[in-house]
Amino acid sequence: MKVLVTGGAGFIGGVTVRDLLKAGFEVSVFDNLECGHQSTIPANVPFVKGDLRDYGEINKALSTEKYDAVLHFAAFTIVPESVEDPRKYFENNVLASLNLMNAMIENNVKTLIFSSSAAVYGDPKEVPINEDTPTSPANPYGQTKLTVEEYLKWYDAAYGLKSVSLRYFNAAGADLDNDLGEDREVETHLIPLVLHAASGKRKDVKIFGSDYPTKDGTCVRDYIHVKDLSGAHVLALQKLLSSRKSAVYNLGSESGFTVKEIVAASEKAVGKKINAVVSGRRAGDPPALIASSRKIRSELGWRQKHSVIEKIILDTWTWMQKHPRGYSS
Questions:
Q1: How many CB atoms lie within 10 A of CB 262?
Q2: Which of 83, 158, 161, 175 could form an SS bridge with 283, CB 3.0 to 4.6 Å?
């Protein structure tokens, strides 16, 4: 089986490329390198530098080689930025995905694994969230993911494009076996920011809001190790190729941690005090997001192997210590 991974030079996509190879798939990567790093792509993996916003580029990639499936990770993911500049997010996340889907239909590629997000749920009334929880995105980023999911439903009905959408929230940790970690030009994810403060790369970490209806007033989030996410993508692909039945699955550790709890756990992991400064709320941040993973455990047999918060933090810290300037190290 030959698969194309869009965004395969990114954090989650890069780890998944390795697990796809390990599972016996033949893999190629399509990425514009705006957020990814070419050095993360294995030497034996064909790489196409292209932009999904250009239909001609993705159509050429899919027509040049015969692919059995696509795994689609390419997207902008910074929630506050999506609130400030929704046009940028709809162009890159929605129109680019539509180009991909149309090129897949044109070239008779009918299997897609879509990297979605728990942000499609917005501010849910109850947690943990299951797949039947009403969707109501609280920010443009979440709306872009939900819009693509809705397109996929209609493309399945009309063109037979089968898909699995995986809804997850906070990917973290590192793939230490393959020396892959999170390295973004503009970092907004909590655990890396906390650890940057611990290492001295930044003077402090900001806590955005301390008046939420949670145990300590700070936002609650579900953190999942990147290796567990990657394994879920491989399982979803294998299942979809055999069952030809579209589906949506949540992916989470089913444990929620407040921002203050993440700071405290990081202090314990690195053995030093971290300067955390309370600031105002960010637009588009729901108080709590914790995803139930019961459905994917039941239907695909997925199991968490790495998503313990102490391991997530320690793996992130270990990779950062080895790569103090990211991949440029």
A1: 27
A2: 83
Domain count, the chain: 2
Which one from 141, 155, 212, 223 is the annotated catalytic residue? 141
Is the pLDDT confidence value at 329 over 80?
A: no
What range does the domain containing 313 cover?
A: 190-221+254-328
Closest CA to 111 of 18, 199, 24, 237: 237
Determine the 3-state secondary structure of 310 from DSSP.
helix
d(CA 243, CA 89): 33
End-to-end CA distance of the chain: 35
Q: Are residues 60 and 157 in the same domain?
A: yes
Tell me: the pLDDT tens digits for 201-218?
999 999 999 999 999 999
Q: Is the pTM of this model over 0.90?
A: yes
Please provide the DSSP assignment of 20-32 as one string: HHHTT-EEEEEE-
pLDDT 10s digits, 121-156: 998 988 899 999 999 999 999 999 999 999 999 999
Taking a C-beta distance cutoff of 8 angstroms, is the pair 114, 164 a contact? Answer: yes
CA pseudo-torsion sign 263, 269, 270, 273: positive
Residues in CB range of 264: below 8 A, 6 or more apart: none
For residues 242 and 269, state if they share a domain: no
In 229-298, DSSP assigns E strands to 247-251, 256-258, 276-279, 288-289
In this structure, are 165 and 82 located in the same domain? yes
CA atoms of 14 and 37, how far apart (whole Å): 9
The verdict on whether 141 is a catalytic residue reads: yes
Residues 210 and 271 in one domain: yes
- Alpha-carbon radius of gyration of the chain: 19
CA distance 118 to 266: 24
Which residues have C-beta within 8 Å of that of residue 86, sequence separation ≥ 6? 140
Give the DSSP per-residue string, 155-196: HHHHH--EEEEEEE-EEE--BTTTTB----SS---HHHHHHH
Q: Angle formed by the axes of helices 55-64 and 96-106, to 10°?
A: 30
- Residue 194 corresponds to which tokens in the numbers above? 């906390």
* Backbone angles phi and psi of 257, in degrees to 5: -130, 135
Question: What are 51's two structure tokens?
Answer: 């932009």
